Each structure stands twice: as structure tokens, then as C-alpha cells.
Amino acid sequence: AGNHTMDWGPEPVLDTIELFNNMGIQVVGAGKDSEEARRPAMIERNGVKIAILSYCSVLRDGQAAATDKAGVAPMRAHTYYEPYDYQPGAPPKMLTVPFEEALAVLQEDIRRVKPKVDVVILSLHWGVPYLQKVIAKYQPEVAHAAIDAGSDLILGHHAHLLKAIEVYKGK
User: Fold this and answer.
1) Can you name the residues that pair with 96 across neighbouring β-strands?
2) Which of 61, 117, 120, 149 could covalently link to 107 via disulfide, CB atoms 3.0 to 4.6 Å apart?
């Protein structure tokens, strides 16, 4: 699930998924509908059962998978702007809040797969690109909710540079 997955529309995405599936490679985060896009990859290595789920917060309108529409599994966030201080022209504070419904779906997916595996890995295409040290406000909120739901590891990507790593509840 990435912000360029749907750049050329649904047909190339579906062709790519079919190509990978025919090679025995599981695909996560995109699919012919929301159910397929939210389906975890299930892997077992050395007796350890692993589920991998993938979602994207960096989506243009129309790129999210839906009940009868191909696309990417979304984990969207709202963005709000607030004046920084009393000085005209000062840059505003940017506040981000996860879509409650998207976060609930993500947590539901984690809770559904957790009893079937030893480890749940969550891949999230999210965050603020190219700005060092800047973590969007929604990111820790989503990460904590995901870990509280049963995720063991979160792999964040999109920023095009390294960002901070947090350990929360040992995860």
C-alpha cells in the first residue's frame, strides 16, 4: 500500500497482483476491493507464524479500495491548520487526526488475525516526507492503537529519510 500504487488506475494494480500471485508471492495493502486490500499475508518461518498487514495514509481521492472498487487499504487522517501565535504571517500549526472509521477498521483487522499467528507486522505508508524530525500528530496515535490491538511491529515508510523510532509497550 503506497501513494503511487494507483497512479495508473486499477487495471495495472490488478495485473500486478495477478502476476505476483501466479509466482506464489503474496500481496498486501491493495486489491480488487477493500476485503482483498485488507487481507494479510500469512507466512510461517522456522515455526513462527507471521501476519503482515499494509495500509496507506497518503492517498489521493478515489485511490482507496471500497466494497466494489479496486484500490489501496486506507488509514486516512484529517489535517487542520491553526494559527501559530499572534503574529500575522507566522506559519500555522498543522494538526492531524486519524479518521476514526479507518482506525477502527485497522484495529479490527489486527484483532481478527492476531489469534491465528505469533507475530503481526503492520506496514504503514504515512508521515511527512523530506522534513527531518517531523512526525505528524496522527502517527503516534495510530501506532499506539495498532499495538494496543495486537500489532508487534510497525514498519513506517514514505518520508524519504530516516525518522525517530519509538518503543511502546515493548513493541
Assistant:
1) 79
2) 149
Q: Which amino acid is at 88?
A: P
**Nearest CA among 130, 131, 119 for reference residue 155:** 119
Q: Which residues pair with 80 in a beta bridge?
A: 95
Contact 6, 14 (CB under 8 A): no
Name the DSSP class of 74.
Answer: B
Helix (H) or strand (E) holding 17: helix 10-22
Percentage of the residues of the chain whose pLDDT score is greater than 70? 100
Predicted confidence at residue 84, as pLDDT, reads 80
- Say which residue the cell 503482515 belongs to: 52
Residue 51's DSSP bridge partners are 42, 120
CA pair distance 104, 120, nearest whole angstrom: 17
pLDDT-derived band at 61 (thresholds 50, 70, 90) equals: very high
